[in-house]
Design brief:
By secondary structure, this protein is of the alpha+beta class. It has one domain. Helices cover about 45% and strands about 20% of the residues. The protein has 3 helices and 5 strands, in the order ββββαβαα. It has a 3-stranded antiparallel sheet with strand order 4-1-5, covered by helices on one side. Strands 2-3 form a two-stranded antiparallel ribbon. A hairpin with a 2-residue loop joins β2 (about 15) and β3. The radius of gyration is 19 Å and the shape is elongated. The N and C termini lie far apart (about 55 Å).
């Protein structure tokens, strides 16, 4: 687990469904979704640090990139294994119905 301290540049600031203060809010990075962590790391009104267990913010960002790459690889493998049927079904599910 990686504990981070997230401080807001303004009191009462919210991002990723979490309220932040100028004093800081300690968070376990493993308790956050990738989208939440990405939103927090990319928010200019938030300052992330210090990372307590020796990881750095850059390592957290790198781990997000690695997770995104793995998810893309897994999806490509699933599509290949299903002969592309999963993609066709997903496309069909997102099509808008024809006007009446």
């Amino acid at each position: 687990m990686t504990q981070i301290l997230v401080k807001s540049t303004v009191d009462g600031f919210r991002r990723a469904g979490i309220g932040f203060t100028r004093q800081g809010v300690p968070l376990e990075s493993t308790d956050l979704t990738q989208d939440q962590l990405r939103a927090i790391l990319n928010e200019p009104n938030l300052v992330v640090g210090p990372v307590i267990d020796g990881d750095t913010v850059e390592q957290l960002i790198d781990s997000l990139g690695a997770a995104d790459d793995k998810a893309s690889d897994d999806k490509a493998s699933d599509d290949k294994a299903s002969g592309g049927k999963a993609s066709a079904a997903a496309k069909a599910a997102t099509k808008e119905p024809a006007p009446k």
